[in-house]
Amino acid sequence: MNQNLILIADDDSDVRDMLSLTLEAAGYRAVGAKDGNTAARILTVAQPVGMITDVRMPAMNGMELCQLARRNPTIRDMAILMVSGNSHAYDVDAGLVAGADGYLSKPLSPRALVAELQTLISRRHLGDF
């Protein structure tokens, strides 16, 4: 696994850019994907330590992307943070059942996002999941 790389899967280029800047300021390298299919290809090649994925994306949604990642033995242990404009308990539960380790609602706080991602990565490395 690439210990410093985070994949950002979101169909909104402004969100991808904002998240990339936020992550790079926190010491990570970021790579973006505009849809789920592109993200799936990047995951298998780059093997990032973590992924931030939107729920609603074309080609493959965030739920499907999480499920795909958890079935792949080379990347199933990476931290996955799902982000969405949907914040109902049902949506959060569905994201966690799909394989996400955490779920944040948009609009995102950059500090909260980095803190949550760092916590999830640490927990994955300690075997807490």
Q: Flag low-confidence runs.
A: none
Strand content bin: 15-25%
What is the name of the CATH superfamily? Answer: Response regulator
The helix count comes to 5
Large-scale geometry: globular
Structure description:
By secondary structure, the chain is an alpha/beta fold. The chain has one domain (2-108): Rossmann fold (3-Layer(aba) Sandwich), CATH 3.40.50. 47% of the residues lie in helices and 23% in strands. It is built from 5 helices and 5 strands; from the N terminus they run βαβαβαβαβα. A 5-stranded parallel beta sheet has the order 2-1-3-4-5, sandwiched between helices. The mean pLDDT is 92.
Provide a concise account of the structure shown.
The chain is an alpha/beta fold and 129 residues long. The chain has five helices and five strands, in the order βαβαβαβαβα.
Spell out the blueprint of helices and strands.
Layout: E1 2-9, H1 13-25, E2 29-33, H2 36-46, E3 48-54, H3 62-71, E4 79-84, H4 89-98, E5 102-105, H5 110-126
Parallel strand pairs: 1-2, 1-3, 3-4, 4-5
Helix pairs in contact: 2-3
